[in-house]
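Is this the right way to post structure tokens for a design question? Let me know if I should format differently. Anyway, here goes:
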């Protein structure tokens, strides 16, 4: 588990020297499941400093490169600020750090329905990028999916009802996916409201490229539906329609894709359910969060009731 960095552990004078900044002030930012972020105010402007507590030097450099590549390719996201030596990553003690330009705006949870088409358009724009675009040549494949190692853990889950439910649905997903040809595209993998900034101009910017990979865009759409198209743990058809309307402004969604999407929404929910259970009951047991995975059971039930899966 990441050992989070606090502001008193940072050498502010060294940080200022790395980036050529004056009058540096740090304010901790809430959120972030694996890293520590701070709003950095200086005479030169506002930035976000993220200490990559959960990364080694190589993975930190890869994250910085992918973030900057998305920005340069026109995806609305934050811009990486290089050090005075031109490095995208700098050392903060024994941990790598990345500095990004501050985006004026706010995270709104849930994201207002009126903004969901904009989120859909951004996702379609990302999916339309050539898979080996400059700066993205080394992105991995299918990292958001459950691995063989993950799947092997399920039979040992103490919550037997959850293990049976999860296995049954994963078998259904596998059967459906085996019957159709999957496309491959650049995907975000985690388009939830806490990774979206509503800018002051009313448009959106997307953050957090840690799960970028090559995968089926329908699964990425499914993950976005889990993250953005629900209220109180229930899929809301009007919200899903708004997300898809924006997506269709940029990319086609065939009848076959539309028919396959509900199962990919379920697939995304299964992935989230697994990781919630595994994290809070096995890796880092937390009684306060030990049952949070059950929210996805309710969500999957709502998908079945409100889509073609009910048949």
């Amino acid at each position: 588990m990441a050992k989070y960095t606090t502001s008193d552990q940072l050498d502010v004078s060294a940080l200022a020297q790395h980036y050529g900044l004056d009058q540096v002030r740090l304010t901790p930012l809430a959120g972030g499941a694996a890293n520590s972020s701070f709003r950095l105010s200086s005479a030169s402007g506002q930035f976000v400093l993220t200490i990559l507590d959960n990364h080694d030097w190589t993975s930190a450099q890869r994250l910085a490169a992918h973030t900057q590549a998305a920005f340069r390719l026109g995806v609305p996201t934050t811009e990486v600020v290089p050090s005075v030596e031109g490095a995208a990553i700098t050392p903060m003690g024994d941990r790598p750090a990345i500095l990004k330009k501050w985006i004026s705006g706010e995270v709104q949870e849930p994201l207002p329905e009126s903004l969901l088409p904009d989120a859909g358009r951004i996702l379609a724009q990302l999916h339309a990028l050539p898979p080996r675009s400059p700066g993205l040549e080394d992105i991995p494949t299918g990292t958001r999916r459950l691995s063989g190692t993950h799947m092997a853990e399920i039979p040992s889950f103490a919550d037997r009802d959850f293990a049976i439910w999860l296995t049954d649905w994963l078998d259904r997903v596998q059967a459906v996916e085996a019957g159709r040809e999957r496309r491959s595209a650049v995907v975000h993998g985690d388009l939830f409201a806490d990774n979206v900034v509503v800018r002051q101009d009313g448009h959106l910017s997307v953050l957090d490229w840690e799960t970028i990979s090559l995968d089926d865009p329908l699964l990425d759409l499914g993950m976005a539906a889990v993250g953005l198209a629900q209220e109180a743990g229930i899929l809301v058809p009007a919200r899903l329609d708004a997300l898809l309307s924006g997506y269709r402004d940029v990319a086609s969604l065939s009848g076959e894709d539309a028919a396959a999407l509900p199962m990919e929404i379920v697939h995304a929910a299964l992935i989230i359910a697994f990781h919630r259970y595994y994290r809070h009951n096995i890796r880092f047991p937390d009684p306060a969060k030990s049952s949070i995975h059950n929210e996805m059971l309710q969500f999957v039930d709502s998908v079945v009731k409100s889509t073609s899966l009910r048949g």
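Format looks fine. Someone answered above. Worth noting: The chain has two domains: 7-102, 113-310. Residues 7-102 form a domain with the Phosphorylase Kinase; domain 1 fold (CATH 3.30.200.20).
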